[in-house]
Amino acid sequence: MSNRRAVDDAIISDYRTVVRALDRVILPLLVERDVTMAQFKALMAVSAAGEAGIPVTALGGELSIGQPSASLIVDQLAKRGYAVRRPDEVDRRRVLVCATPAGRELVAELRHGRRSTFEAWLAGVDDADAEKLALGIHVLARAVEAADGRA
Questions:
Q1: Side by side, which strands form the sheet with 54-55?
Q2: Residue 99 three-state SS
Q3: Per-residue pLDDT tens listing for the chain (151 residues)
Q4: How far apart are CA 79 and CA 39, in angstroms?
């Protein structure tokens, strides 16, 4: 069992290395666009909500922050033209947040940068290791889906 803990620790450590490297890919663009990492994470959640939008309270829940903090982030995104607020047609007391075309474009641009970087890294992996990596990522993706109740 102690060996499994060491394996899990190594996986988590390597995962963090990859995530940090991917973050470094997008940071220059975020700085150029005057967007913080918190705003980017919020924009990702807003963009994922699609045309339906997301209530500010739900956005706060997704980001594990309070409604006032989520509202402030939305204000900042709106000021930069990346998000808009609109009333919920079903419940007029609620306000929904939607990504603007510029917001969706920024998310797409950042995803493309991450994907291009990832593809460049994979180009340096030999075929045998790529097959092992594909299996490992597949197993992890199935574990994520099972934990989310989507399996």
A1: 54-55, 95-99, 83-87
A2: strand
A3: 569 999 999 999 999 999 999 989 899 999 999 999 999 999 999 999 999 999 999 999 999 999 999 999 999 999 999 999 999 888 888 889 999 999 999 999 999 999 999 999 999 999 999 999 999 999 999 999 999 886 5
A4: 12
Model confidence, pTM: 0.78
Amino acid present at 142: R
Q: What CATH number matches the domain at 2-147, 1.10.1740.10, 3.10.129.10, 1.10.10.10, 3.40.640.10?
A: 1.10.10.10
Show the tokens assigned to 81: 């033209």
**DSSP-assigned beta bridge partners for residue 54:** 97
The pair of structure tokens assigned to 22 is 């991917």
